[in-house]
Structure formats: C-alpha cells, structure tokens
Amino acid sequence: MKTILHKAPTRGYFDHGWLQTHHTFSFADYYDPARVNFGALRVLNDDVVAPGMGFGLHPHRNMEIVSIPLSGALEHRDSMGHVSVIRPGEIQVMSAGTGVQHSEYNEQKDKETNFLQIWVIPEFENVQPRYENLSIADYIHRNRISTFISPHPGHDTPAWLYQQVWFSMADMDADKELVYKFKSPISYGVYAFVIEGDVEVAGEPLTYRDGLGVTDARSFSIRSYTEARVLLVEVPFIG
Q: Which residues of 220-235 are buried (b: 16+ CB within 10 A; e: fewer)?
C-alpha cells in the first residue's frame, strides 16, 4: 500500500472577498507541480461563497464536474437552459463534453454557502453535454460506505459519470471502523477527503479537510475517533 498525505493547511488558499476557496490540487493561480491531480481526479475545491454572490457565466469543456453542497443553497444556470438550486443532501453532476457555460451563485441572501466542486478527467471526450440534479440522501447510510456515483447509468447509484470512477460517503459515529474495498483493478486509487471529524484512514490520522490518496491496495480501513464524514473518490490512473 502507498499513500500520499495532503494536510488541510497545505492546500492553496485565496480570499477573494466574496469567495473563500481552498484548492487541494493545482487550480487557477495555485500551482504545485507535485499536486496537479490524483489519477483522473483533477480538482477538489472547497468553496465558501458570500450571501448572494457567486461565479458568473463561464465555460467548461471535456470535464466531468460534481458539486456537493455542505451548507446553504447553490443556484445553477447554464447554456442548456437549466435553472435550479441544490442543497445539502443533493448533488449536481455535469458532463461538459463539447462545451457548456454555467454560473453558480449562493441563492441565500443572508448566509454563506459552502460546497465542494470536484472535476474528473473523462474517459470519453466531446460527448453531448448533460446536467442533472440528484438527491443522494436515501443512498447515504450511517456507519456504512455508501456509493452514490458510479460509471454505470441506471445501476445501484443515482448518478454516473463518463469515467470509471466511484464516489462514496462514509458517515460514521464515533469509535467505528469500516473497510473500503476497491471496486476496480489494482491500478486504481482512492482519494479520501475528511469533510468533518477525526479519523484514521489506512493507518494515517486525519482531521477536518485533510486528504489522503491510497494506491497499490485492494482495501483499507477507516476508523472514526469522533463523529465523522469522509468523501471517498476511486479513480483510474490515466497515462
């Protein structure tokens, strides 16, 4: 087993006034040649958006984009004509494909919105752009590893992407242990991102917003010291 540790304070950080943003991997003005990606996982941004503020209309192409609200409400508009709001317990998945423009705003006028935006390099380029809002609340089970995105449309997860990738959540009570079993071949890796709590992943103590990549394994343990929530993203290592 091999691991790569990214402690929360080592992330790229920018204060734009209306936006407080942390970048686990190189993004925009943050560049670290050692932290460009983890396999097909290209971006993991932790954004806090001021009330009523947000990202104006901007383009994307050939990228799988997942938005996960942690608090507040995120309004989405795009060039495909979609207008919607997502909240905790829901996710947004978008395949940019041949090209799409969208905007994201904090729908609330009196509270901040915190969300994760995650980019995955697609297996197939230039697909027809698509967009979905989905509730994942019924798929997240406490003290279990709950998978909510997979590569397979219409299977056991509500959402899918154009890549051999699995997104799972581990919502844990204190003093619990779970085992993550890889869903794919040995050449794949899992990136664990601690949303809340204190845990031990693959023998490494982690806390709030720490990240750990695990490769060369078929399984690893997750132990919770406190109540905790851990996002797990299994991805291929692409050449």
A: bebbbbeebbbbbbbb
Return d(Cα 232, Cα 145) in angstroms, integer: 9
User: Which residue do the tokens 């460009």 mark?
Assistant: 36
% of the chain at pLDDT higher than 70: 99
Burial class of residue 47 (count of CB atoms within 10 Å of its CB; 0-12, 13-18, 19+)? buried
Tokens for 16? 């734009």
Domains of the chain in start order, with CATH, are 11-137 (2.60.120.10), 139-236 (2.60.120.10)
Task: Say whether pLDDT at 153 is over 90.
Answer: no
Per-residue pLDDT tens digits for 43-79: 999 999 999 998 888 889 999 999 999 999 999 887 7
- Residue 80 tokens read as 């495909």
How many other C-beta atoms can be found within 10 angstroms of the C-beta atom of residue 210? 23
CA dist 3 → 17, 81, 106, 110 (Å)? 35, 42, 35, 41
The span from the CA of 49 to the CA of 73, in Å, is: 10
The mean per-residue pLDDT over the stretch 98-124 comes to: 94
Query: Any idea what DSSP says for residue 225?
Result: S
Instruction: Report the DSSP pairing between strands 159-160 and 145-150.
Output: parallel
d(CA 13, CA 10): 9
pLDDT digits (tens, 9 = 90+) for 222-236: 999 999 999 999 999
